[in-house]
Amino acid sequence: MTKRPGAAERPGAAEFPGATRAASRVVRRACLVALAVGGFLLPWCVLLAVTLPATARAQHWSLAWAGLDAAEAVAALATAVLLRRGSSRAGLTAAAAVALLLTDAWFDICTSAPGLDRMLAAGEAIFVELPLAGAGMWLAVTVTRKDR
Length: 148
Description:
Elements: H1 21-51, H2 61-84, H3 90-111, H4 116-146
Helix pairs in contact: 2-3, 3-4
């Protein structure tokens, strides 16, 4: 397997063959931004973990949960519409649905009361949200690969 000339000098070029110089610059910058954000957020998470209070009162609790579930529904319906049309963009909405399902499972468990509530939240995560997220990830990868 041979590399294109100049591919080593342009990070990201190997992943996007045929990309213009301008597109390669955008990819490099996006990579640097992603690294900077990730590098900032890791220590930020540690700081939050040690400084935030154990409990908090939320003013719009029901709106937050209804909004999260509505976003999951929109992502699932958009995925269905795009699949019906044969669009590979269904992979994008499926990936968004995966992120929302994982977020829902995480916050269901983390915000549930100890005992039966937490057991129910864990059961919902294990038997509903995580399997749906796995199926959505499989779908996102499969539909995206089909486009190549």
